[in-house]
Protein backbone atom coordinates (compact mmCIF):
# COMPACT_ATOMS: atom_id res chain seq x y z
CA UNK A 1 0.00 0.00 0.00
CA UNK A 2 1.50 3.36 -0.94
CA UNK A 3 1.55 6.41 1.30
CA UNK A 4 -0.20 9.63 0.34
CA UNK A 5 3.07 11.36 -0.59
CA UNK A 6 2.73 13.31 -3.80
CA UNK A 7 6.03 15.20 -3.78
CA UNK A 8 9.33 13.87 -5.04
CA UNK A 9 11.25 11.97 -2.41
CA UNK A 10 14.01 9.40 -2.22
CA UNK A 11 14.50 6.04 -0.60
CA UNK A 12 18.05 5.30 0.31
CA UNK A 13 19.51 1.83 -0.12
CA UNK A 14 22.94 0.41 -0.73
CA UNK A 15 24.53 0.35 -4.20
CA UNK A 16 24.95 -3.24 -5.43
CA UNK A 17 25.39 -2.73 -9.19
CA UNK A 18 26.20 0.72 -10.52
CA UNK A 19 24.27 2.70 -13.10
CA UNK A 20 21.20 4.84 -13.55
CA UNK A 21 17.88 3.93 -15.09
CA UNK A 22 14.49 5.58 -15.40
CA UNK A 23 11.39 3.43 -15.81
CA UNK A 24 8.00 2.34 -14.58
CA UNK A 25 7.90 0.53 -11.25
CA UNK A 26 6.84 -3.11 -11.18
CA UNK A 27 6.18 -4.21 -7.63
CA UNK A 28 6.81 -7.84 -6.90
CA UNK A 29 5.87 -8.83 -3.44
CA UNK A 30 7.67 -12.09 -2.97
CA UNK A 31 6.83 -12.21 0.73
CA UNK A 32 3.51 -13.93 0.33
CA UNK A 33 2.62 -14.83 3.89
CA UNK A 34 -0.17 -12.29 4.26
CA UNK A 35 -2.24 -11.77 1.20
CA UNK A 36 -5.05 -9.26 1.34
CA UNK A 37 -8.36 -10.14 -0.34
CA UNK A 38 -8.69 -8.67 -3.84
CA UNK A 39 -12.15 -8.61 -5.46
CA UNK A 40 -12.55 -9.80 -9.01
CA UNK A 41 -15.34 -9.41 -11.58
CA UNK A 42 -17.59 -12.31 -12.53
CA UNK A 43 -16.09 -12.38 -16.00
CA UNK A 44 -12.62 -12.87 -14.44
CA UNK A 45 -13.62 -16.02 -12.54
CA UNK A 46 -12.54 -18.45 -15.28
CA UNK A 47 -9.25 -16.65 -15.68
CA UNK A 48 -8.49 -16.98 -11.96
CA UNK A 49 -9.54 -20.64 -11.89
CA UNK A 50 -7.32 -21.23 -14.89
CA UNK A 51 -4.43 -19.44 -13.15
CA UNK A 52 -4.85 -21.74 -10.15
CA UNK A 53 -4.91 -24.88 -12.32
CA UNK A 54 -1.91 -23.76 -14.33
CA UNK A 55 0.09 -23.06 -11.15
CA UNK A 56 -0.91 -26.43 -9.76
CA UNK A 57 0.35 -28.11 -12.93
CA UNK A 58 3.66 -26.20 -12.73
CA UNK A 59 4.21 -27.07 -9.08
CA UNK A 60 3.57 -30.76 -9.71
CA UNK A 61 5.93 -30.71 -12.68
CA UNK A 62 8.57 -29.02 -10.55
CA UNK A 63 8.23 -31.63 -7.80
CA UNK A 64 8.46 -34.40 -10.37
CA UNK A 65 11.64 -32.88 -11.80
CA UNK A 66 12.99 -32.71 -8.29
CA UNK A 67 12.22 -36.30 -7.42
CA UNK A 68 13.79 -37.37 -10.73
CA UNK A 69 17.11 -36.01 -9.52
CA UNK A 70 16.92 -37.04 -5.89
CA UNK A 71 17.59 -40.40 -4.36
CA UNK A 72 17.28 -40.47 -0.61
CA UNK A 73 14.02 -41.93 0.53
CA UNK A 74 13.24 -39.29 3.15
CA UNK A 75 13.33 -36.60 0.49
CA UNK A 76 11.24 -38.70 -1.87
CA UNK A 77 8.62 -39.12 0.88
CA UNK A 78 8.41 -35.38 1.48
CA UNK A 79 8.00 -34.71 -2.22
CA UNK A 80 5.31 -37.37 -2.43
CA UNK A 81 3.42 -35.86 0.49
CA UNK A 82 3.64 -32.41 -1.07
CA UNK A 83 2.28 -33.74 -4.36
CA UNK A 84 -0.63 -35.37 -2.57
CA UNK A 85 -1.47 -32.13 -0.78
CA UNK A 86 -1.37 -30.09 -3.98
CA UNK A 87 -3.63 -32.61 -5.72
CA UNK A 88 -6.06 -32.93 -2.81
CA UNK A 89 -9.59 -32.38 -4.24
CA UNK A 90 -10.65 -30.67 -0.99
CA UNK A 91 -8.11 -27.90 -1.62
CA UNK A 92 -9.28 -27.38 -5.18
CA UNK A 93 -12.92 -27.33 -4.07
CA UNK A 94 -12.23 -24.67 -1.46
CA UNK A 95 -10.14 -22.51 -3.83
CA UNK A 96 -12.82 -22.65 -6.54
CA UNK A 97 -15.51 -21.86 -3.98
CA UNK A 98 -13.68 -18.68 -2.88
CA UNK A 99 -13.05 -17.57 -6.46
CA UNK A 100 -16.57 -18.35 -7.76
CA UNK A 101 -18.78 -17.51 -4.82
CA UNK A 102 -16.84 -14.86 -2.94
CA UNK A 103 -15.38 -13.34 -6.12
CA UNK A 104 -11.89 -13.11 -4.68
CA UNK A 105 -8.59 -13.50 -6.55
CA UNK A 106 -6.75 -16.80 -7.04
CA UNK A 107 -3.78 -15.83 -4.84
CA UNK A 108 -6.06 -14.97 -1.94
CA UNK A 109 -8.16 -18.12 -2.51
CA UNK A 110 -5.02 -20.24 -2.25
CA UNK A 111 -3.82 -18.29 0.76
CA UNK A 112 -7.09 -18.57 2.65
CA UNK A 113 -7.59 -22.24 1.82
CA UNK A 114 -4.14 -23.26 3.00
CA UNK A 115 -4.34 -21.05 6.09
CA UNK A 116 -7.65 -22.70 7.06
CA UNK A 117 -6.15 -26.17 6.71
CA UNK A 118 -3.05 -25.11 8.65
CA UNK A 119 -5.19 -23.68 11.47
CA UNK A 120 -7.15 -26.93 11.71
CA UNK A 121 -3.96 -28.95 12.01
CA UNK A 122 -2.58 -26.55 14.60
CA UNK A 123 -5.75 -26.80 16.67
CA UNK A 124 -5.43 -30.57 16.73
CA UNK A 125 -2.17 -30.04 18.69
CA UNK A 126 -0.82 -33.27 17.29
CA UNK A 127 2.95 -33.62 17.06
CA UNK A 128 2.34 -36.00 14.17
CA UNK A 129 0.89 -33.16 12.11
CA UNK A 130 3.85 -30.87 12.69
CA UNK A 131 5.64 -31.87 9.49
CA UNK A 132 2.33 -31.56 7.66
CA UNK A 133 2.04 -27.93 8.77
CA UNK A 134 5.53 -27.14 7.49
CA UNK A 135 4.65 -28.79 4.19
CA UNK A 136 1.42 -26.84 3.92
CA UNK A 137 3.10 -23.52 4.66
CA UNK A 138 5.81 -24.27 2.16
CA UNK A 139 3.34 -25.22 -0.57
CA UNK A 140 1.10 -22.25 0.22
CA UNK A 141 4.00 -19.82 -0.26
CA UNK A 142 5.23 -21.47 -3.43
CA UNK A 143 1.70 -21.67 -4.81
CA UNK A 144 1.15 -17.96 -4.22
CA UNK A 145 4.53 -17.08 -5.71
CA UNK A 146 3.56 -19.18 -8.73
CA UNK A 147 0.08 -17.61 -9.10
CA UNK A 148 1.48 -14.08 -8.63
CA UNK A 149 4.53 -14.84 -10.72
CA UNK A 150 2.46 -15.53 -13.79
CA UNK A 151 0.58 -12.29 -13.26
CA UNK A 152 3.75 -10.27 -12.80
CA UNK A 153 5.72 -11.71 -15.66
CA UNK A 154 2.89 -10.80 -18.02
CA UNK A 155 2.83 -7.22 -16.84
CA UNK A 156 6.54 -6.47 -17.34
CA UNK A 157 7.19 -3.86 -19.99
CA UNK A 158 10.56 -3.00 -21.53
CA UNK A 159 12.46 -0.59 -19.32
CA UNK A 160 10.53 -1.46 -16.12
CA UNK A 161 12.28 -1.32 -12.79
CA UNK A 162 11.67 -4.28 -10.50
CA UNK A 163 10.89 -3.29 -6.91
CA UNK A 164 10.77 -6.29 -4.60
CA UNK A 165 11.56 -7.57 -1.15
CA UNK A 166 13.85 -10.20 -2.64
CA UNK A 167 14.00 -12.20 -5.84
CA UNK A 168 15.50 -15.46 -7.05
CA UNK A 169 18.27 -15.23 -9.67
CA UNK A 170 16.22 -17.24 -12.16
CA UNK A 171 13.21 -14.93 -11.84
CA UNK A 172 15.51 -11.96 -12.20
CA UNK A 173 16.96 -13.31 -15.44
CA UNK A 174 13.43 -13.91 -16.75
CA UNK A 175 12.53 -10.28 -16.03
CA UNK A 176 15.80 -9.14 -17.56
CA UNK A 177 14.98 -11.05 -20.73
CA UNK A 178 11.55 -9.42 -20.71
CA UNK A 179 13.28 -6.04 -20.71
CA UNK A 180 13.55 -5.01 -17.03
CA UNK A 181 16.16 -2.29 -16.65
CA UNK A 182 16.87 -2.13 -12.92
CA UNK A 183 16.37 -3.82 -9.57
CA UNK A 184 15.47 -2.43 -6.15
CA UNK A 185 15.49 -4.92 -3.27
CA UNK A 186 14.30 -4.25 0.25
CA UNK A 187 16.32 -7.13 1.61
CA UNK A 188 19.77 -8.46 1.08
CA UNK A 189 23.35 -7.38 1.11
CA UNK A 190 25.50 -6.53 -1.89
CA UNK A 191 26.61 -10.15 -2.21
CA UNK A 192 23.09 -11.60 -2.17
CA UNK A 193 22.88 -13.92 -5.13
CA UNK A 194 20.35 -11.82 -7.07
CA UNK A 195 22.47 -8.68 -6.57
CA UNK A 196 25.49 -10.45 -8.07
CA UNK A 197 23.45 -11.55 -11.08
CA UNK A 198 22.06 -8.03 -11.55
CA UNK A 199 25.62 -6.71 -11.62
CA UNK A 200 26.64 -9.32 -14.12
CA UNK A 201 23.71 -8.48 -16.37
CA UNK A 202 24.64 -4.81 -16.19
CA UNK A 203 21.38 -3.91 -14.41
CA UNK A 204 21.63 -1.05 -11.91
CA UNK A 205 20.67 -2.47 -8.54
CA UNK A 206 20.29 -1.29 -4.97
CA UNK A 207 19.66 -3.45 -1.93
CA UNK A 208 18.47 -2.66 1.55
CA UNK A 209 15.97 -0.09 0.28
CA UNK A 210 13.60 -0.08 3.24
CA UNK A 211 9.86 0.07 2.50
CA UNK A 212 10.51 0.25 -1.24
CA UNK A 213 7.62 -2.09 -2.10
CA UNK A 214 5.28 -0.13 0.16
CA UNK A 215 6.20 3.32 -1.13
CA UNK A 216 6.61 2.71 -4.86
CA UNK A 217 3.42 2.66 -6.90
CA UNK A 218 2.91 0.22 -9.76
CA UNK A 219 3.45 1.81 -13.19
CA UNK A 220 4.63 5.13 -11.81
CA UNK A 221 7.90 6.47 -13.19
CA UNK A 222 10.81 6.11 -10.79
CA UNK A 223 14.49 6.89 -11.08
CA UNK A 224 16.98 4.32 -9.88
CA UNK A 225 20.34 5.89 -9.19
CA UNK A 226 22.40 2.91 -8.11
CA UNK A 227 25.59 4.97 -8.21
CA UNK A 228 24.24 6.88 -5.23
CA UNK A 229 22.35 3.88 -3.86
CA UNK A 230 18.92 5.47 -4.05
CA UNK A 231 15.62 5.51 -5.86
CA UNK A 232 13.63 8.66 -6.54
CA UNK A 233 9.86 8.39 -6.33
CA UNK A 234 7.45 10.85 -7.99
CA UNK A 235 10.42 12.70 -9.54
CA UNK A 236 9.76 16.28 -10.61
CA UNK A 237 10.11 17.18 -14.30
CA UNK A 238 13.32 18.94 -13.47
CA UNK A 239 14.82 15.87 -11.77
CA UNK A 240 13.84 13.69 -14.72
CA UNK A 241 15.52 16.19 -17.04
CA UNK A 242 18.72 16.15 -14.96
CA UNK A 243 18.78 12.39 -14.90
CA UNK A 244 18.26 12.15 -18.65
CA UNK A 245 21.47 14.15 -19.04
CA UNK A 246 23.24 11.78 -16.61
CA UNK A 247 21.88 8.81 -18.55
CA UNK A 248 23.33 10.16 -21.79
CA UNK A 249 26.71 10.60 -20.11
CA UNK A 250 26.46 7.06 -18.72
CA UNK A 251 25.87 5.63 -22.20
CA UNK A 252 28.84 7.51 -23.60
CA UNK A 253 31.14 6.65 -20.71
CA UNK A 254 30.31 2.94 -20.39
CA UNK A 255 33.44 1.04 -21.21
CA UNK A 256 33.12 -2.64 -21.82
CA UNK A 257 36.49 -3.50 -23.21
CA UNK A 258 39.91 -3.65 -21.57
CA UNK A 259 42.21 -1.02 -22.95
CA UNK A 260 45.45 -2.45 -21.56
CA UNK A 261 47.44 -5.66 -21.79
CA UNK A 262 47.10 -7.97 -18.86
CA UNK A 263 50.33 -7.10 -17.07
CA UNK A 264 51.65 -4.73 -14.42
CA UNK A 265 53.99 -1.85 -15.29
CA UNK A 266 56.97 -4.13 -14.60
CA UNK A 267 55.61 -6.88 -16.83
CA UNK A 268 54.05 -9.34 -14.36
CA UNK A 269 51.13 -11.00 -16.16
CA UNK A 270 47.69 -11.70 -14.66
CA UNK A 271 44.42 -13.19 -15.85
CA UNK A 272 40.97 -11.67 -15.49
CA UNK A 273 38.05 -14.03 -15.94
CA UNK A 274 34.26 -13.73 -15.92
CA UNK A 275 31.73 -15.13 -13.43
CA UNK A 276 28.49 -16.10 -15.14
CA UNK A 277 25.45 -18.30 -14.60
CA UNK A 278 23.06 -17.69 -17.48
CA UNK A 279 23.46 -17.59 -21.25
CA UNK A 280 22.14 -14.03 -21.05
CA UNK A 281 25.46 -13.03 -19.44
CA UNK A 282 27.65 -14.59 -22.13
CA UNK A 283 27.59 -11.59 -24.40
CA UNK A 284 28.84 -9.22 -21.69
CA UNK A 285 31.46 -11.76 -20.65
CA UNK A 286 33.01 -11.94 -24.09
CA UNK A 287 32.67 -8.19 -24.74
CA UNK A 288 34.37 -7.34 -21.43
CA UNK A 289 37.73 -8.65 -22.59
CA UNK A 290 37.79 -11.39 -19.95
CA UNK A 291 40.11 -14.28 -20.73
CA UNK A 292 37.61 -17.04 -20.07
CA UNK A 293 35.02 -18.07 -17.49
CA UNK A 294 36.53 -18.43 -14.04
CA UNK A 295 33.22 -19.41 -12.46
CA UNK A 296 30.22 -20.87 -14.23
CA UNK A 297 27.51 -21.17 -11.59
CA UNK A 298 25.15 -23.98 -12.57
CA UNK A 299 22.34 -23.79 -9.98
CA UNK A 300 20.18 -21.81 -12.42
CA UNK A 301 19.67 -25.08 -14.33
CA UNK A 302 17.68 -26.49 -11.44
CA UNK A 303 15.32 -23.76 -10.35
CA UNK A 304 12.22 -21.95 -11.50
CA UNK A 305 10.95 -22.16 -15.01
CA UNK A 306 14.40 -22.79 -16.46
CA UNK A 307 14.85 -26.32 -15.18
CA UNK A 308 17.20 -28.20 -17.52
CA UNK A 309 18.69 -30.97 -15.48
CA UNK A 310 18.91 -34.00 -17.76
CA UNK A 311 22.47 -34.76 -18.98
CA UNK A 312 21.48 -33.84 -22.56
CA UNK A 313 19.98 -30.50 -21.61
CA UNK A 314 22.94 -29.68 -19.40
CA UNK A 315 25.38 -30.73 -22.10
CA UNK A 316 23.73 -28.35 -24.53
CA UNK A 317 24.06 -25.51 -22.00
CA UNK A 318 27.73 -26.19 -21.21
CA UNK A 319 28.53 -26.52 -24.92
CA UNK A 320 26.87 -23.21 -25.61
CA UNK A 321 29.00 -21.52 -22.95
CA UNK A 322 32.27 -23.15 -24.06
CA UNK A 323 31.58 -22.24 -27.68
CA UNK A 324 30.45 -18.73 -26.79
CA UNK A 325 33.69 -17.58 -25.19
CA UNK A 326 37.42 -18.00 -25.70
CA UNK A 327 39.68 -19.44 -23.02
CA UNK A 328 39.08 -21.94 -20.22
CA UNK A 329 35.69 -22.46 -18.59
CA UNK A 330 35.55 -23.49 -14.94
CA UNK A 331 32.25 -25.22 -14.26
CA UNK A 332 31.19 -25.33 -10.63
CA UNK A 333 29.11 -28.34 -9.62
CA UNK A 334 25.59 -27.54 -8.40
CA UNK A 335 25.88 -25.39 -5.30
CA UNK A 336 22.37 -25.96 -4.00
CA UNK A 337 21.51 -24.86 -0.48
CA UNK A 338 22.07 -21.68 1.53
CA UNK A 339 20.29 -18.90 -0.35
CA UNK A 340 20.05 -21.05 -3.48
CA UNK A 341 17.36 -23.35 -2.18
CA UNK A 342 14.11 -21.77 -3.30
CA UNK A 343 12.56 -25.05 -4.43
CA UNK A 344 14.20 -27.57 -2.14
CA UNK A 345 11.98 -29.87 -0.17
CA UNK A 346 13.83 -29.78 3.15
CA UNK A 347 13.47 -26.87 5.53
CA UNK A 348 16.58 -26.38 7.61
CA UNK A 349 17.15 -24.23 10.66
CA UNK A 350 20.59 -23.15 9.42
CA UNK A 351 20.63 -23.67 5.66
CA UNK A 352 24.00 -21.95 5.19
CA UNK A 353 25.52 -24.46 7.60
CA UNK A 354 23.51 -27.35 6.36
CA UNK A 355 22.92 -29.62 3.42
CA UNK A 356 24.71 -27.54 0.82
CA UNK A 357 27.02 -27.92 -2.17
CA UNK A 358 29.16 -31.03 -2.13
CA UNK A 359 27.39 -32.35 0.99
CA UNK A 360 24.14 -32.58 -0.92
CA UNK A 361 25.70 -33.85 -4.14
CA UNK A 362 27.42 -36.76 -2.45
CA UNK A 363 24.03 -37.83 -1.06
CA UNK A 364 22.28 -37.25 -4.36
CA UNK A 365 24.42 -39.40 -6.62
CA UNK A 366 21.96 -39.44 -9.50
CA UNK A 367 22.00 -35.67 -9.71
CA UNK A 368 25.79 -35.55 -9.31
CA UNK A 369 26.41 -38.20 -11.95
CA UNK A 370 24.10 -36.56 -14.46
CA UNK A 371 26.04 -33.33 -14.08
CA UNK A 372 29.43 -35.04 -14.28
CA UNK A 373 28.34 -36.95 -17.37
CA UNK A 374 27.36 -33.71 -19.11
CA UNK A 375 30.50 -31.81 -18.08
CA UNK A 376 32.88 -34.65 -18.91
CA UNK A 377 31.31 -35.16 -22.33
CA UNK A 378 31.75 -31.48 -23.17
CA UNK A 379 35.30 -31.56 -21.78
CA UNK A 380 36.08 -34.55 -24.00
CA UNK A 381 35.01 -32.57 -27.06
CA UNK A 382 37.05 -29.54 -25.96
CA UNK A 383 40.22 -30.94 -24.37
CA UNK A 384 42.12 -28.49 -22.16
CA UNK A 385 39.24 -26.01 -21.94
CA UNK A 386 37.01 -27.27 -19.14
CA UNK A 387 37.76 -27.43 -15.42
CA UNK A 388 35.57 -28.78 -12.60
CA UNK A 389 35.12 -26.82 -9.39
CA UNK A 390 33.65 -28.31 -6.20
CA UNK A 391 31.61 -26.04 -3.89
CA UNK A 392 31.36 -26.01 -0.10
CA UNK A 393 34.17 -28.43 0.66
CA UNK A 394 34.96 -28.62 4.38
CA UNK A 395 36.67 -32.01 4.86
CA UNK A 396 39.24 -33.83 2.76
CA UNK A 397 37.12 -36.95 2.20
CA UNK A 398 34.69 -34.92 0.13
CA UNK A 399 37.44 -34.22 -2.38
CA UNK A 400 38.49 -37.84 -2.49
CA UNK A 401 34.94 -39.03 -2.97
CA UNK A 402 34.28 -36.59 -5.77
CA UNK A 403 37.44 -37.65 -7.58
CA UNK A 404 36.28 -41.21 -7.28
CA UNK A 405 32.91 -40.29 -8.78
CA UNK A 406 34.60 -38.47 -11.67
CA UNK A 407 36.71 -41.53 -12.42
CA UNK A 408 33.63 -43.76 -12.40
CA UNK A 409 31.72 -41.53 -14.81
CA UNK A 410 34.79 -41.21 -17.04
CA UNK A 411 35.09 -45.01 -17.10
CA UNK A 412 31.44 -45.36 -18.12
CA UNK A 413 31.82 -42.74 -20.86
CA UNK A 414 34.93 -44.40 -22.24
CA UNK A 415 33.26 -47.78 -22.38
CA UNK A 416 30.39 -46.32 -24.35
CA UNK A 417 32.84 -44.82 -26.84
CA UNK A 418 32.69 -41.19 -25.69
CA UNK A 419 35.95 -39.22 -25.73
CA UNK A 420 37.08 -37.78 -22.42
CA UNK A 421 39.69 -35.29 -21.28
CA UNK A 422 41.75 -37.52 -19.00
CA UNK A 423 43.53 -34.54 -17.47
CA UNK A 424 40.50 -32.45 -16.70
CA UNK A 425 41.58 -30.25 -13.76
CA UNK A 426 39.66 -30.68 -10.51
CA UNK A 427 39.56 -27.76 -8.11
CA UNK A 428 37.83 -26.80 -4.91
CA UNK A 429 36.23 -23.64 -3.65
CA UNK A 430 37.88 -22.18 -0.57
CA UNK A 431 34.80 -20.94 1.27
CA UNK A 432 34.99 -22.63 4.63
CA UNK A 433 37.79 -21.53 7.00
CA UNK A 434 38.75 -25.18 7.62
CA UNK A 435 40.05 -25.35 4.04
CA UNK A 436 42.04 -22.12 4.29
CA UNK A 437 43.55 -23.19 7.60
CA UNK A 438 44.72 -26.53 6.15
CA UNK A 439 45.29 -25.25 2.64
CA UNK A 440 48.42 -27.31 2.02
CA UNK A 441 46.72 -30.58 2.96
CA UNK A 442 43.75 -29.82 0.68
CA UNK A 443 45.95 -28.47 -2.12
CA UNK A 444 47.88 -31.77 -2.32
CA UNK A 445 44.66 -33.51 -3.34
CA UNK A 446 43.56 -31.24 -6.18
CA UNK A 447 44.71 -29.30 -9.25
CA UNK A 448 43.63 -25.75 -8.37
CA UNK A 449 41.87 -23.70 -5.72
CA UNK A 450 39.38 -20.92 -6.17
CA UNK A 451 38.62 -18.67 -3.21
CA UNK A 452 34.92 -17.87 -2.84
CA UNK A 453 35.38 -14.69 -0.84
CA UNK A 454 31.63 -14.15 -0.39
CA UNK A 455 31.14 -17.35 1.53
CA UNK A 456 34.57 -17.23 3.12
CA UNK A 457 33.60 -13.84 4.57
CA UNK A 458 30.25 -15.07 5.83
CA UNK A 459 31.72 -18.19 7.43
CA UNK A 460 34.71 -16.37 8.94
CA UNK A 461 32.68 -13.55 10.43
CA UNK A 462 29.54 -15.61 11.16
CA UNK A 463 27.45 -13.13 9.17
CA UNK A 464 24.67 -14.33 6.87
CA UNK A 465 25.55 -12.61 3.59
CA UNK A 466 21.90 -11.99 2.71
CA UNK A 467 20.71 -10.68 6.08
CA UNK A 468 19.99 -6.97 5.82
CA UNK A 469 19.96 -6.41 9.58
CA UNK A 470 23.62 -7.26 9.90
CA UNK A 471 24.88 -6.27 6.47
CA UNK A 472 27.36 -3.77 7.91
CA UNK A 473 29.13 -6.67 9.59
CA UNK A 474 29.66 -8.39 6.26
CA UNK A 475 33.13 -6.98 5.66
CA UNK A 476 35.16 -8.66 3.01
CA UNK A 477 38.17 -6.47 3.78
CA UNK A 478 38.17 -7.72 7.35
CA UNK A 479 41.79 -8.53 8.35
CA UNK A 480 40.75 -12.04 9.40
CA UNK A 481 39.36 -12.75 5.93
CA UNK A 482 42.55 -11.41 4.36
CA UNK A 483 44.67 -13.56 6.69
CA UNK A 484 42.78 -16.69 5.64
CA UNK A 485 43.30 -15.78 2.00
CA UNK A 486 47.01 -15.32 2.59
CA UNK A 487 47.17 -18.67 4.39
CA UNK A 488 45.47 -20.29 1.40
CA UNK A 489 48.01 -18.77 -0.99
CA UNK A 490 50.92 -19.96 1.17
CA UNK A 491 49.55 -23.49 1.55
CA UNK A 492 48.78 -23.82 -2.14
CA UNK A 493 52.20 -22.51 -3.12
CA UNK A 494 53.87 -25.16 -1.00
CA UNK A 495 51.89 -27.80 -2.89
CA UNK A 496 52.58 -26.06 -6.21
CA UNK A 497 48.90 -25.45 -6.90
CA UNK A 498 47.42 -22.32 -8.49
CA UNK A 499 44.96 -20.17 -6.54
CA UNK A 500 42.39 -17.83 -8.03
CA UNK A 501 39.56 -15.81 -6.48
CA UNK A 502 36.01 -15.85 -7.79
CA UNK A 503 34.13 -13.96 -5.05
CA UNK A 504 33.10 -10.32 -5.23
CA UNK A 505 36.41 -9.26 -3.67
CA UNK A 506 38.12 -10.00 -6.99
CA UNK A 507 36.07 -7.39 -8.83
CA UNK A 508 36.52 -4.76 -6.16
CA UNK A 509 39.41 -2.33 -6.50
CA UNK A 510 40.75 -2.57 -2.95
CA UNK A 511 40.20 -6.32 -2.92
CA UNK A 512 41.86 -6.94 -6.29
CA UNK A 513 44.89 -4.82 -5.37
CA UNK A 514 45.44 -6.80 -2.14
CA UNK A 515 44.76 -10.18 -3.75
CA UNK A 516 47.29 -9.49 -6.47
CA UNK A 517 49.70 -8.32 -3.78
CA UNK A 518 49.27 -11.68 -2.03
CA UNK A 519 50.45 -13.34 -5.23
CA UNK A 520 47.09 -14.33 -6.76
CA UNK A 521 47.45 -13.99 -10.52
CA UNK A 522 43.95 -14.99 -11.59
CA UNK A 523 40.83 -13.08 -10.58
CA UNK A 524 37.30 -13.89 -11.71
CA UNK A 525 34.49 -11.34 -11.46
CA UNK A 526 31.26 -10.05 -12.95
CA UNK A 527 32.10 -9.09 -16.55
CA UNK A 528 31.43 -5.39 -16.06
CA UNK A 529 34.27 -5.15 -13.51
CA UNK A 530 36.94 -6.59 -15.83
CA UNK A 531 37.99 -3.31 -17.56
CA UNK A 532 38.24 -1.40 -14.28
CA UNK A 533 40.36 -4.08 -12.58
CA UNK A 534 42.50 -4.39 -15.68
CA UNK A 535 43.19 -0.67 -15.59
CA UNK A 536 44.08 -0.84 -11.90
CA UNK A 537 46.47 -3.79 -12.13
CA UNK A 538 48.15 -2.29 -15.19
CA UNK A 539 48.74 1.00 -13.40
CA UNK A 540 51.44 -0.03 -10.92
CA UNK A 541 54.32 -2.44 -10.45
CA UNK A 542 53.89 -5.82 -8.77
CA UNK A 543 56.15 -4.56 -5.99
CA UNK A 544 53.70 -1.79 -5.13
CA UNK A 545 50.80 -4.24 -4.82
CA UNK A 546 52.91 -6.49 -2.61
CA UNK A 547 53.71 -3.56 -0.31
CA UNK A 548 50.02 -2.70 -0.03
CA UNK A 549 49.06 -6.30 0.75
CA UNK A 550 51.82 -6.71 3.33
CA UNK A 551 50.59 -3.61 5.08
CA UNK A 552 46.88 -4.54 4.74
CA UNK A 553 47.30 -7.81 6.59
CA UNK A 554 48.66 -6.03 9.64
CA UNK A 555 45.64 -3.71 10.02
CA UNK A 556 42.86 -4.08 12.57
CA UNK A 557 39.74 -3.18 10.61
CA UNK A 558 38.15 -2.77 7.19
CA UNK A 559 38.01 1.00 7.68
CA UNK A 560 41.77 1.12 8.17
CA UNK A 561 42.24 -0.70 4.89
CA UNK A 562 39.96 1.73 3.06
CA UNK A 563 42.01 4.58 4.43
CA UNK A 564 45.31 2.93 3.58
CA UNK A 565 44.13 2.26 0.04
CA UNK A 566 43.11 5.88 -0.40
CA UNK A 567 46.61 7.00 0.54
CA UNK A 568 48.33 4.26 -1.46
CA UNK A 569 46.43 4.95 -4.66
C1 LIG B 1 31.74 -17.08 -5.64
C2 LIG B 1 31.14 -17.46 -4.56
O1 LIG B 1 30.07 -18.28 -4.60
P1 LIG B 1 28.52 -17.83 -4.63
O2 LIG B 1 27.95 -18.34 -5.89
O3 LIG B 1 27.94 -18.49 -3.44
O4 LIG B 1 28.52 -16.33 -4.54
C3 LIG B 1 31.59 -17.01 -3.23
O5 LIG B 1 31.09 -17.53 -2.23
O6 LIG B 1 32.45 -16.12 -3.18
Automatic annotation (TrEMBL):
It holds the Pfam family PEP-utilisers_N. It is an enzyme of class 2 (transferase). Residues 262-537 form the PEP-utilising enzyme C-terminal domain. Its cofactor is Mg(2+). Residues 156-229 form the PEP-utilising enzyme mobile domain. It catalyses: L-histidyl-[protein] + phosphoenolpyruvate = N(pros)-phospho-L-histidyl-[protein] + pyruvate. It is found in: Cytoplasm. Residues 12-132 form the Phosphotransferase system enzyme I N-terminal domain. PROSITE patterns: PEP_ENZYMES_2 (PS00742). InterPro entries: PEP-util_enz_mobile_dom (IPR008279), PEP-utilizing_PTS_enzyme (IPR050499), PEP_util_C (IPR000121), PEP_util_CS (IPR023151), Phosphohistidine_dom_sf (IPR036637), PTS_EI (IPR024692), PTS_EI-like (IPR006318), PTS_EIN (IPR008731). Keywords: Cytoplasm, Kinase, Magnesium, Metal-binding, Phosphotransferase system, Sugar transport, Transferase, Transport. Its EC number is 2.7.3.9. Its main location: cytoplasm. PANTHER family: PHOSPHOENOLPYRUVATE-PROTEIN PHOSPHOTRANSFERASE. Belongs to the PEP-utilizing enzyme family. General (non sugar-specific) component of the phosphoenolpyruvate-dependent sugar phosphotransferase system (sugar PTS). This major carbohydrate active-transport system catalyzes the phosphorylation of incoming sugar substrates concomitantly with their translocation across the cell membrane. Enzyme I transfers the phosphoryl group from phosphoenolpyruvate (PEP) to the phosphoryl carrier protein (HPr). This is Phosphoenolpyruvate-protein phosphotransferase. It comes from Gracilimonas halophila.
Amino acid sequence: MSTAKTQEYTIQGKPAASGITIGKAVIINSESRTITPTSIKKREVDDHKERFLESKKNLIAELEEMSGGLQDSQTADIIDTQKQIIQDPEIEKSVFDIIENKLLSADFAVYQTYCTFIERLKESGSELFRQRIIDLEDIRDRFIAEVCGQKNVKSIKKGSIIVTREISPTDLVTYYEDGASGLVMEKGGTTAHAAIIAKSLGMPCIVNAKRATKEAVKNEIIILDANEGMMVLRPSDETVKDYKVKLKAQKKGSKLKCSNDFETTDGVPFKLMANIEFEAELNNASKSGSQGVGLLRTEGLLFGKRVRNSPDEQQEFYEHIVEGIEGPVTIRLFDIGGDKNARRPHKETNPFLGWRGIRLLLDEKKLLRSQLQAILTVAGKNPGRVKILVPMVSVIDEVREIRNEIEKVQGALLSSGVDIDENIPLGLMVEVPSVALSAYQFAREIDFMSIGSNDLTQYTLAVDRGNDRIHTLFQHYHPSVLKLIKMTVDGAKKADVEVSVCGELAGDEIGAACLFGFGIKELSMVPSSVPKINELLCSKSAEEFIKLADHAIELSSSEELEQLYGEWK
